[in-house]
Amino acid sequence: MKTLINKALHRKLAMRLAMVGFIISIVFGLIVLLIESKKVGEVVLDRALQAAIHFNAEAGALLDKPGLPDHDQIQCVLDTFVTRGLKLRNSHYNKVGRSVIINILDLNRNEVAKYIDLDYENINAFETQMHTSNLPRHHNNKDWYELKWIKGFPFVLYGVPLTNSIGKTVAHAEGVFAVTAESLTDVRSSALNAALIIIAIVLVTTGLLYPVIIKQMNNLKSAQLQLIHAEKLESIGRLAAGVAHEVKNPLAVIQLGIDYLSQTQKGNKDVTETVVDMDDAVKRADTVIKGLLEFSRPTKLEIKTMNVNEVLEESLLLVKYELSKNNITLDKQLKNGLPDIKLDRNKMKQVFINLFMNAIHAMDKDGTLTVNTCSNQLPKDLYNNYCKKVKHFKVGDRVVIVTIEDTGIGIPEGSIDKLFEPFFTTKPTGIGTGLGLSVTKSIIELHQAIINIMNRKAGGASVSILFKTKLGDDHA
Amino acid sequence: MPKKKILVVDDEASLTRMLRRNLEATGKYEVKEENVGSQGYATAKQFQPDMILLDIMMPDIDGGAVAAQIQDDEQLKQVPIVFLTAIIQKEEVDDTGSNIGGSTFLAKPVKLGDLITCIENKLGR
Ligand SMILES: Nc1ncnc2c1ncn2[C@@H]1O[C@H](COP(=O)(O)OP(=O)(O)OP(=O)(O)O)[C@@H](O)[C@H]1O
Ligand SMILES: [Mg+2]
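Output (structure tokens, whole complex):
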């Protein structure tokens, strides 16, 4: 009981930790997303500025003449430059902005030439809003740049001195680079990519954590159920032992009373009949008590190493009459050369007879009882479905599996969970006490084995019992 | 043949009464009832039975303790004792009495026929 509580607490803790991890990963993901998107923006704008400077440096280099360039000269330079610039379109200039407005100013800041290359509608809108003559001119002869978002597009406004090949400033260029839709997509898609990566990270993390969380939740639930079950059984056990004792004494009195009457009233037919009925009733009451005691008492097993097939054969002999009476076909599929396992012969016989009788009761007449044995390496799906709760089972353990199947009515819907509860029965009084499976289960657990019951797809029930061929030292 | 004397010690009066009635009806036994466990030894000393039927779980004293007192007595130690018990199963003992660690046990509820067989075995018939 204590270890169960500990387990439950550990699981609760583990689940909390998983939740904390989950939240941390989400928060971290969001922070990264913010930083990344900001970085992407910065990178693009930085590129835009680089392009602007590059552009003007090229232009300046063309003004390689002493004295102030005249308008025609600059126009010529620009034409040459733009022709060149067009060639450069595949370089980073192109990446940043195809739409360009450039003003060339002389050293007195008079406009001497102008170049406009606009590709996009929104750039037209920009032009009307912000004509080059409105460009800020406060930076004079120095390099400067400014960033403006207009209608959702980033623009780089800049001014650079144009120098000739001997380093003399001959003019000023001021202009606007519009980040093109193309490069905007670039910006957006890299921001989007970053976001997607982060989302993917979060999703993957979540995906990885999800089964852990679910598992922990299920574990917690099953630990709680186990706890409740164990507690219930413990109190039933205590109750049972007490009740059994209290009931057996009055039963003994009644039994002796019946015997007395049957001895002294031998000639009286009515008394004899009454006495037989009473005798029968006492026997029935005693059987119930017996089952209860068996269920409640932690019995020691008398373990011997044997082949489970032998025990099955012996048990089948005992139900032979019931089988033939009900015209039930027996399909025996007992595997040869099964590894020996440690069993209490009598207790296991009790288990098998219980299961056979359940099957026979479920079939009524004309069914088939299939008894199958096999030995396997415990496969993963079986482990996941039935063995997880039993800590000494591992995937790959060698197990002997006994399967008992019938073609009967099957387990009634919704009662699968109740089958192993003491006194759960769907049979009329006198036929079933509802203790068969609870006793069976406690015996199976004493053998450190696992029992599972389910309905077959083809109808009827299927009971399987898994024994480990090698048990630890803690075996009862 | 003289009647054999049987002492029945059990806190349940109706049970001892029933046992007495049944055994005396056979005409072969004289039965004395004792319903106070702790009086079991004293009554045995006084009654000098040929055999004792002894309940195990009694409110004031354990049947085993009464048996120990009796077996410590020179006069009584040869007297066979059969324990009647509600806490072991018929399946674990023979219907007509099982020997567990030197003592004979009968599981309640016991049938008259089984009881008599057991008694006769003990008394050597
Ligand atoms: N093979 C089966 N097919 C259909 N239902 C079954 C089968 N085995 C068990 N059950 C259901 O489970 C219930 C409980 O079974 P269990 O063996 O514990 O008690 P019981 O058979 O009713 O009484 P008894 O104490 O005599 O065994 C049965 O009443 C029945 O409804
Ligand atoms: Mg049953």
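The first helix of chain B runs from residue 13 to 25.
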